């Protein structure tokens, strides 16, 4: 088979690259970032036994993955705004959602590829069809490469997507504001006790506090607010104290150990607006090109995006390995299954959340992001 050209070395693109490598299919990945450490990779991801872990298995990396799992982090509690513990689930080591740091997962995949597979500092600016399923990819520096099979794994703002679809992401109506508390057991003990050994969720209508105990005793918080974008635009996030005070104001009257996750942040608060592609986004088959992960089906965070990106990568890799002489058959098989997954993604995410939280009152379940009452 010809070399597969992947744009984007996120979890989706790298899982695809690794599965192709396992099947001895040549692959090259072009990545905009300058190096694996050029940008902080975000927090912990729970990797699910029904999608993310299946992808890791297809990549032949289960043993390496188990070595990255942070013990005890599947513990989960739901608190009320007054700090009362409403639900508590311990991590007994049997859960299907072990947690690992995103940067570690990415490095695991990078380490499992031949040196030179990923070409760093290669930002794609666009791509055009040359006919016969071939594409010319143009980089920001003006250079070009020709791809026999092109895969856009370049995330929300994909430069490959326009070859397949006119859809562009729109604001999803919610945003996260991210903070970190370091050495929390000693420096922020009340907040550390509230979060416990794993993750905390304190949901209320239109707002929630999510926090994770990451490696060591770092607490990573995502404050979730349902607000229009211009509400956030009016806050000066370059002034950390002002922004922190404005976000904390939305949680007036909440327990101090919860608001401390915002007000005691050791890093400036970072705004992360959520964007989404249309639900069930799909396209007609275009020879020689496809998409995986957020490029194909960006959704507001619901705990599935990274898992689905890895699963897409693995499924596409397996389809190409199964049809070495017929790229179009492989792409058709991959896309049809992926479109079906996408059309059911919200219902699936809600079903898995219910499985996890099934024994809690519906009124509380309805507040949990990703859960929809009618499903
Ligand atoms: C705040 C937040 C929290 C989240 N939490 C979770 C969670 O707990 N669990 C979960 O499963 N999902 C979570 N997600 C969703 C998850 O992060 C994404 O769904 C996942 O990263 C998608 O992977 P990907 O490989 O498709 O894209 P990305 O991870 O976005 O990777 C795309 C790669 O392409 C590169 N790239 C982009 N443009 C170009 C270009 N023009 N040229 C070359 N390279 C380019 C980027 O630098 C990047 O390396 C969260 C998302 C957010 C925003």
UniProtKB/TrEMBL annotation:
SUPFAM superfamilies: FAD/NAD(P)-binding domain. NADPH binds at residue 39. FAD binds at residues 46, 102, 294. One of its GO terms (cellular component) is cytoplasm. Residues 3-323 form the FAD-binding domain. It is found in: Cytoplasm. Its EC number is 1.14.13.-. Pfam families: FAD_binding_3. It catalyses: a tetracycline + NADPH + O2 + H(+) = an 11a-hydroxytetracycline + NADP(+) + H2O. Its cofactor is FAD. One of its GO terms (molecular function) is FAD binding. One of its GO terms (biological process) is response to antibiotic. HAMAP family: TetX_monooxygenase. Monomer. An FAD-requiring monooxygenase active on some tetracycline antibiotic derivatives, which leads to their inactivation. Hydroxylates carbon 11a of tetracycline and some analogs. PANTHER family: FAD DEPENDENT OXIDOREDUCTASE DOMAIN-CONTAINING PROTEIN, MONOOXYGENASE ASQM-RELATED. Belongs to the aromatic-ring hydroxylase family. TetX subfamily. Consists of an N-terminal FAD-binding domain with a Rossman fold and a C-terminal substrate-binding domain. This is Flavin-dependent monooxygenase. It comes from Sphaerisporangium album.
């Amino acid at each position: 088979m010809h070399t597969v050209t992947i744009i984007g070395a996120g979890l989706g693109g790298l899982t695809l690259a690794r599965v192709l490598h396992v099947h001895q299919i040549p692959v090259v990945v072009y990545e905009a970032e300058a190096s694996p450490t050029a940008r902080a990779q975000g927090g912990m991801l729970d990797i699910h036994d029904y999608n993310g872990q299946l992808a890791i298995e297809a990549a032949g990396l289960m043993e390496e993955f188990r070595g990255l799992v942070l013990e005890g982090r599947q513990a989960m509690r739901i608190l009320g705004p007054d700090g009362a513990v409403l639900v508590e689930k311990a991590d007994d080591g049997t859960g299907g959602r072990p947690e690992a740091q995103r940067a570690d997962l990415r490095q695991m995949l990078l380490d499992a590829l031949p040196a030179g597979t990923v070409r760093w500092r290669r930002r794609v600016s666009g791509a055009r069809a040359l006919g016969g399923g071939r594409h010319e990819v143009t980089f920001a520096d003006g250079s070009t490469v020709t791809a026999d099979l092109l895969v856009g794994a370049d995330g929300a703002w994909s430069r490959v997507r326009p070859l397949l679809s006119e859809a562009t992401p729109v604001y999803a109506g919610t945003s996260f504001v991210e903070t970190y508390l370091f050495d929390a057991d000693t420096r922020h003990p009340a907040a550390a006790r509230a979060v416990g050994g794993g993750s905390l969720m304190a949901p209320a209508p239109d707002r929630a506090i999510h926090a994770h105990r990451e490696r060591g005793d770092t607490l990573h918080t995502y404050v979730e607010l349902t607000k229009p974008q211009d509400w956030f635009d009016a806050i000066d996030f370059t002034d950390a104290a002002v922004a922190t005070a404005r976000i904390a104001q939305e949680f007036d009257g909440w327990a101090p150990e919860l608001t401390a996750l915002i007000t005691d942040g050791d890093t400036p608060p970072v705004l992360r607006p959520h964007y989404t592609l249309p639900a069930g986004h799909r396209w007609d088959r275009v020879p020689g090109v496809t998409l995986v992960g957020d490029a194909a089906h960006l959704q507001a965070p619901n705990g599935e995006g990274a898992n689905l990106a890895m699963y897409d990568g693995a499924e596409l890799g397996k389809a190409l390995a199964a049809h070495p002489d017929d790229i179009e058959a492989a792409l058709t098989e991959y896309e049809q299954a992926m479109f079906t997954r996408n059309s059911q993604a919200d219902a699936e995410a809600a079903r898995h959340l219910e499985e996890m939280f099934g024994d809690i009152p519906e009124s509380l379940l309805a507040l949990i992001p990703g859960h929809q009452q009618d499903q």
